[in-house]
Design brief:
There is one protein chain. This protein is α/β, with parallel strands linked by helices and about 550 residues long. The chain contains 20 helices and 15 strands. The protein has helices at about 5-15, 20-25, 30-40, 60-70, 80-90, 100-115, 175-190, 220-230, 250-260, 270-285, 295-305, 390-395, 400-410, 415-430, 430-440, 450-460, 465-480, 485-495, 505-510, 520-544, and strands at about 135-145, 150-160, 165-170, 195-200, 205-210, 215-220, 235, 265-270, 320, 330-335, 335-340, 350-355, 360-365, 365-370, 380. The strands form 4 sheets. Strands 1, 2, 3, 4, 7 and 8 form a 6-stranded mixed beta sheet that branches. A 4-stranded antiparallel beta sheet has the order 9-12-13-14, with no helix packed on it. Strand 5 (about 205-210) and strand 6 (about 215-220) form a beta hairpin.
Length: about 550
């Protein structure tokens, strides 16, 4: 128990009739402690010991005088700790260490500044935020286990100052495209734009240059266009740690969100999955109260939302535009990474729109490739489908291709592909078997991936190692999916053996219905009757 609790127990037992000696034995204290407890309910504070003398004590007045003289000296010609230490040794013969001087100067220098009246007065003024008028924006880094790998991502936070309603989004980078997409998602979720101003620190996505010590900034051109589109009025805080308190709401919000929802480290397969969880966490946080407020965040936001400015009808293109040239490997450089394009575009310039989580490649306004954005620097993302035309001519390059390895890692090149490939190589040989597999992969441009895999499995069970057989079985799988039947269900479950027929037999079995009328012999009967009648008349004439 604490000393206060000890005194209270002693006084209570003494009031019940317990003697001082009994109190000493019960609580294991001396008679002095019992006497002090009976005399006063509050323990007397312990006396502070006088500071222990050091070898620096005789020279402390000298150091104080140096520090006071520096107050009026030019800013670039003031004493450093090293210079003070050297003067004490050289001019005063002091036998002290550098650490003792540094420790004393660090504590004494601010005190002298306050004593002189030149210390800046740091005070914080309470603020009242009108509903629907102000908001704060910032990024914070979070660690996520993404697809089994520990990576650092960036948490975007947009917080309304009045209600405390916050919208979050996790991105692979904190670039301008993520900055814009975070705004678009937040404004759509909130249903409007703050009418007065939004507070920012000096993010590179928005600020190109800070002008001196003023609030003036040289803003990025696309940021100016984005603000103009949504009607956002920006307010920039002071650079560095000194300006953090000017948007303390979002600073604290990011810390709260990270501690409560990212501990332990979340494990997800994609950022899309993580952002679905973030949206759910945002809805959960709406039920909490901030500080001593009487209303929840959701209740305050219900009053604030109708006061927001409406959103514009037209969307804003948040992606950044690049025009790289495809190299001889069928790759284009985007930022620090490389992505594949169809080999027919080798040597041509393409148009790339880079978003926060993906990028889209266009050739003359036609989309030719779409990739998930890479997080690591210097990485390469290849699509196996982009190289199939070249691999048909060079089947020997297929087994060791990087695109094949990435397709395996992504689960697009399955064990069924490998098993069919091995069987095809045994039957047709290394080159022709590999070429047959590449022709099967080309089917993926016209048929869904799951149907091609089903066709491969059926052809493998039947021993048909040709692309035509796989195409036939893939179309049968697609047809059975669109027209379900009991037999198709048993075939999909593997209870019935798959059969492969020739393409001609399949076409004959699937002929369209014949709507023509059945043939009639009535015209022939009329001809026979007419001939019979004419023949009879001729014989009667001869008889006459």
């Amino acid at each position: 128990m604490s000393k206060v609790e000890l005194y209270a127990a002693i006084r209570r037992d003494h009031r019940d009739g317990m003697s001082m000696r009994e109190l000493e034995r019960r609580y294991g204290v001396t008679w002095r402690t019992v006497r002090k407890a009976l005399d006063s309910s509050w323990p007397t504070p312990r006396k502070k010991l006088p500071p222990r003398a050091t070898g620096l004590d005789p020279f402390k007045p000298v150091i104080d005088e140096i520090l006071r003289a520096d107050l009026d000296a030019p800013r670039k010609q003031r004493h450093t700790v090293t210079r003070i230490f050297h003067r004490l040794v050289e001019e005063h013969g002091a036998d002290v260490s550098y650490g003792m001087v540094r420790y004393y100067v660090a504590g004494r220098k601010p005190e002298i500044l306050v004593e002189s009246g030149k210390a800046p007065l740091e005070a914080f003024i309470p603020q009242t935020h009108q509903p629907g008028h102000e908001a704060e924006v910032d990024f914070g880094d979070v660690t996520v286990r993404l697809a089994g790998e520990l990576v650092t991502c960036y948490l975007f936070s947009f917080r309304l100052s009045h209600s405390g309603k916050a919208v979050h989004r996790v991105f692979a980078s904190a670039g301008q495209e993520a900055f814009f997409e975070g705004h678009v998602h937040a404004l759509r979720t909130l249903g409007g734009v703050p009418r007065s101003k939004v507070r920012y620190d000096n993010l590179k996505a928005a600020v190109a240059r800070v002008l001196g010590l003023s609030r003036a900034r040289v803003e990025a051109d696309r940021w100016i266009a984005f603000k103009s589109h949504y009607g956002i009025e920006s307010f920039y805080c002071r650079p560095g740690i000194e300006g953090a308190h000017e948007k303390g709401g979002v600073e604290g919000q990011i810390g709260y969100f990270r501690r409560n929802h990212f501990v332990p480290v979340p494990e997800v397969s994609s950022l899309a999955e993580l952002n679905e969880m973030v949206d759910q966490w945002d809805r959960q946080d709406d039920t909490r109260r901030i500080g001593s407020r009487s209303k929840t965040i959701a209740e305050c936001f219900a009053l604030e939302q109708p006061l927001l400015r409406p959103l514009p009808d037209e969307p804003f293109e948040t992606g950044r535009l690049f025009t790289p040239r495809a190299d001889r490997y069928g790759q284009i450089p985007v930022r620090t990474n490389r992505y594949s394009v169809p080999i027919r575009l080798i040597g041509k310039r393409v148009r790339v729109v880079l978003h926060a989580s993906h990028l889209v490649v266009y050739d003359r306004n036609v989309e030719v490739a779409r990739h998930e954005r890479l997080i690591a620097k210097g990485a390469v993302r290849l699509d196996l489908d982009h190289y199939l035309e070249a691999l048909v001519r060079k089947p020997g390059a297929f087994p060791g291709s990087t695109a094949l390895e990435q397709a395996r890692s992504a689960g697009k090149f399955t064990r069924v592909h490998d098993a069919w490939w091995e069987r095809a190589k045994k039957i047709h040989g290394e080159r022709d078997g590999t070429r047959a597999l590449i022709e099967v992969l080309l089917l993926g441009r016209h048929l869904p991936h799951e149907h091609v895999v089903a066709g491969l499995a059926a052809a493998l069970r039947a021993g048909a190692m040709t692309a035509d057989a796989v195409a036939l079985e893939a179309r049968k799988a697609a047809q059975s999916e669109s027209e379900p039947s009991p037999e198709a269900g048993r075939l999909a479950s593997g209870t019935l053996p798959a059969t492969v027929t020739s393409l001609n037999e399949w076409r004959l079995a699937h002929l369209p219905p014949d709507t023509r009328p059945l043939p009639s012999v009535t015209p022939y009967d009329q001809l026979l009757r007419r001939r019979r009648d004419s023949g009879g008349d001729h014989r009667q004439g001869e008889a006459q």
